[in-house]
Amino acid sequence: MLYTLTEKPNTMDFENAKAQMRKGVLEFCILSILSKNDAYATDILNTLKKSELIVVEGTLYPLLSRQKNAGLLSYRWEESTQGPPRKYYALTDKGKEALHELESSWKELIEAVDSIIHSN
Amino acid sequence: MKKTFSVNLGNRVYNIDDDAYMRLKEYLDRIESYFSDEKEREDIINDIEMRLSELFSERLTASRQVITLADVDDSIRIMGDPSEIGGVKGKSETFKSHERYGGRRRLYRDPDNRVFGGVCGGLGAYLDVDPVIIRIILVVLFFAFGVGLLVYLIMWIVVPEAKTTAQKLEMRGDPVNASNIGNFFREEFDSVKNSFKRKK
Fold first, then answer.
1. ipTM of this predicted complex?
2. Nearest in space to A89 (alpha carbons), one of A35, A25, A23, A26
3. Does the beta-carbon distance from A87 to B50 stay under 8 Å?
4. Global pTM?
5. Which of A56, A94, A114, B135 suits B44 as a labelling partner, its CA being 20 to 30 A distant?
């Protein structure tokens, strides 16, 4: 039947949507973590891993680099008691603004999605 | 016994086995090829090297001073494949087609799998065929046309033996496809030509 053929779910697109969603949420969480304290990459990783938001560590670095290049983050080198100096990231003013915007759109999204899911 | 290299990773020095070094270098190269923007790539590679360095240092103790292949593999698993790191920017597909895992496969004589010089063992590893089949073909060629022995002797002389672990990895590296074979013979031809020139 032609109908069932077109209804066949496309798993690739679904994976892509999930990955996009996770990436958006990750960017939001990175800003949120840095709004509390300046942190170096491994601190951020540990927080994200504790809440099982991140599967492989490598995912973090392109996001940090992109946010830094977009002017949301700045970094400085700090001496460490264990090993070489660490790269500490901090929110810039632009980053704080972006975080506020993301926070409010996150709340809107949750309410909107909730109202749709629970209306059935 | 294994050969080791010393590498500077994230401003720390590590002694690393040669097979582990190959794997690590190949991994970092693959990440590098994933990001086209130069500024972004430099940041990412630096950060990842720093983190790998941290992961390595956690694994070393006073009685364990060398980074092994298992250490590198575990760390790569924690860090993730370049396709996962790169996310869904769409670049992943275009890069996958001409980028292969494990580096290029090379033809060596296999000292661990040999009757005389390891030519058939090496050819078997190169072509993903059981060496026994190649030996049978060679014997048939010898009786049918008398060329089998000559081919074998020439290959014994020309093809290098896989001595180090790294070379053995290379021997079993990538699956061979038509374009690889073409490249392989072109490069081998060039290197033979050059070695003749040097001898003159």
1. 0.77
2. A35
3. yes
4. 0.60
5. A94
